[in-house]
Input
Amino acid sequence: MDPVLYRRRLIPDECILLKDDVILECNEEHIVTSWNAIRPKKDLHHGYSCYFLKEGFKVSKFFYEDGRLLYWYCDIVDYDYSKADNRLIVTDLLADVIIYPDGFVKVVDLDELVTSLEARTISLDTLKSCLRKLDKLLGIIYAGNFNSLTRFIEDHEN
Output
């Protein structure tokens, strides 16, 4: 049975049940979902996400309402699975990578890591883990191997 997914954010402090996300694939290594934006923005309308359970990141493909690619958005995350109630809480560790359709790569929200550390909402060990995961993800991207991550989503697109 597929787990119940939650998204936990540190800034702002919130934990949201992803009740409308559709799980397209689920195994021990990754979970692929399709979704509509929880809080639609001017551009972001819907997308797909792949949770890489062993690597500690989530890769999402964001779309405009008309189906055009907005960009790829990669979150560095921690996973907390409760077998008793089949619940997976995905904690956003703040550091993110955006990959635009033209291939431009932008790392964002590193300042939020410092803010969270100072506010003691993230531990030093978690911050270190986040930076290691970010480095691993950037290594994949800069080596030209991002398609090894995006293929899980692209296999489910109609």
Observations:
- The mean pLDDT is 95.
